[in-house]
Amino acid sequence: MSKIIVAIDGPAASGKSTAAKKLAELLGYVYLDTGAMYRAITYIALKNNIVDDIDKVIKAVKGLDISLKFENSVTRVFVNDEEVTDFIRTPEVSEKVSEISRIPEVRTELVRLQKQMSEKGSIVAEGRDITTVVFPNADVKIYMNASADVRTERRYKEFIEKGMDVKIDDVRENLKKRDEIDSGREISPLRKTEEAIEVDTTNLTVEEELTKIVALIKKAELNSHHNSLK
Predict the structure, then answer these.
(1) Phi and psi (nearest 5°) for 60?
(2) 10-51 pLDDT per residue, tens
(3) Which domains does the chain have, with CATH numbers?
(4) Cβ contacts of residue 97 below 8 Å, gap of 6+?
(5) Regions of the chain where pLDDT drops below 70
(6) CA neighbours closer than 13 Å in the CB half-sphere of residue 214
(7) What angle do CA 83, 71, 119 make, to 5 degrees?
(8) How far is CA 55 from the centre of its chain?
(9) 202: Cβ–Cβ under 8 A, 6 or more apart, which residues?
């Protein structure tokens, strides 16, 4: 059977990562967390105190070797063989990641890497420009969303469970800022394509989300099988 590409876009804390991970595990697909890659670049920029120097960020991204390993439901992220998994999920990285990810040269380099990673077989990829730029010909396109209040509660809970000292109002403001940057940037803005199927996760359980998406994937697999027989 031909490989299947499932592309999932949506704003922060809409449920993309949770759904994509579980789908990959359930179906035996490769999971591609593109957001982790942008977070890795942001972490390196913060670590080297160059986050406000675009030229230095561009130079840095071209010299980095980023790899992802999905193990035990966790995406382990490595930069030049150094694991940065825990460091990229801090509020400090969340605060700056949208600013770094809107740099055209950064996006160009990471999209190149993401396309390379898709050559291993069927994949579930999630991010901000997966359906529009990275995999515009994906077999299944999903746009996930949720209300601002629900997304804020989800992200706040994530931080608290990791022992981070954050205020819910700060989390809400950060998500609002990220939404504005992600949707308003000139290069690869976050948007729903005409062919993408919207899944509003505000009032859905993870199981309900998966049931909806798996049905779409199974249909795509069947179509792929029929086309391969022609």
Answers:
(1) -70, -45
(2) 999 999 999 999 999 999 898 999 999 999 999 999 999 999
(3) 5-201 (3.40.50.300)
(4) 35, 38, 39, 42, 178
(5) 1, 225-226, 228-230
(6) 15
(7) 90
(8) 25
(9) 145, 146, 147, 150
